[in-house]
Design a protein that fits this description.
The protein is an all-alpha fold. The protein has helices at 2-11, 26-34, 54-161. 75% of the residues lie in helices and 0% in strands.
Amino acid sequence: MQAAGSKDKRRRAPDDKRDDPDYENITSAFRSQDKPPKNQGRSRSPPGGDQAPPWLYRVLLSVYALLALAFIFCIILSALVLVKSHGLSWELQNLNKNLNEELWNVSKSVKDCQASLKWDIQKGLIEVKNAINHRNEKLKMVPEDLMDIKNNLQKVLQLLQQPLPRPTAQ
């Protein structure tokens, strides 16, 4: 009932009841009942007052140190990879230049061989044509030679058909 009565008192217009001896400050009484006083119960220590075990700090420091070392190792490894890739790139460029030079030399050699073979083939064709022309000239003389042979054979036949003179006894 007191709670209901106190709500009624609050709803009424604020009078200066503090001077009234029958006035009771209900709000401060309720506050003291709801909240324990600061000195009672479990007291809170100031921030950082909760002390962690000393080994925890060492473990955290070790983890941070390992993390820093891993980070530094990654940076060093990245630098080494960069240097190595630069070296490999340089080597590949040199190999590419050498390969281009070799390819150019081979191409030049092939062109020289083709030119030489073309010259040799043309020279051989000229020699073959000359040989054919020489044989053709000889073939043109064959009918004349055949006629001469035929005439010689006819003379031999005539001589063979004549009676042989008998040798005389001496």
